[in-house]
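sanity check this:
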Amino acid sequence: MSMDFVGSPNFSDRSLPRHSANGRRSRAGSRASSFDHRLSIIAEDGNVQPAKPVQTHNRPFSRRFLGEPPRYTNGHRPPQYTLWDVTGPKGEKFQDLRDNAYVARRGGWKRICLIALVIIICIVALVVGLAVGLHKRSSSNSTPASPSSTSSPITGPFPAGSWTFTTFLDSQSAACTSQNSSWKCEPAVTYASSPTNSEAIFNWIIDSTGPDLFTISSTGNPFAIDFNNATLSRVGSGSSNERYTFTTTVQKVVFPSLNVKCYYNTTQFTGDLYTKRAKSYPPNSTASATSSAAAAMASNGVGTAAGGAFANWGFAVDATQSVGGGQDVPACYNYNANTGQVEDLITTGYTVMPAADFCSCAYKNYDP
């Protein structure tokens, strides 16, 4: 059966010149190839076969190098293979990718490794930065130390900070009680008796609560002087006698003997912290050294103690305990030293003294 196509050349034309058999086959192949791009083949049963797709040269790199994936019918499974078994259209292995011109034009494997290294460094830096940031945030949200802590000085506007006040016991009086032994002032020796043995050191903490607003608290001490958040008030601002002063009520405890414990429940404790007046105690602190320390603290706000948490106060200071006579001044009890328990109130041997008669302990660090 023969079929003629409209507009197509007549293959039965014998007027063409004769050539060799190879030439005829070459021309026939060229014509057939050109027909494949223009016309579809009509089979004898009338079905039209689809035209062969035009091959393109801008396919993705993976297909250009590895070729088209194999197709399998339902009756056949693909063979088992690994990545290293993959071959290209010319039989090249995966290893040949290293020498491929496409990769070489973009810097080769060295450039790819360099980019990967930069990405890894960025990730590590991000993780480290995040960890440090979280650590700092956690530290800033931690609970502050209690007033009795000596971990580090408190920073803030002067005079806020953790300060050491080195004083001496200047005077003492037991006029409020009929039993002189029931009132004691540590270290029980005045400066007039012994300048060295009369030394008394206090560690106090000053907190800033607002503009020119401060409170002061004691720490553990052998003088039984305990107070917390007493208000500091500035007096004589700008004068040579400028100072911060406070007054608070404390409970003073005295042991006249091993089996007696006395309480002075209404003891007044007052303090004056001078900001310009020079100190003269301890004896090795000269006026010039004191003036230099004062200037440094005034300019820097808070001093830093070498090897410790408390800085030395560079100015004059005085502190006084006092209580007037009256009922239950003092209130003394029998005391069981073994159990640490207070027992019966002692009602004999003590006479109530006038309110104008004061018991006192006076400390300072200037004009001995």
Q: What stands out?
A: Residues 158 and 298 are 7 Å apart (CA to CA). The first helix runs from residue 21 to 38. Helices lie at 21-38, 61-66, 101-105, 108-140, 287-300.
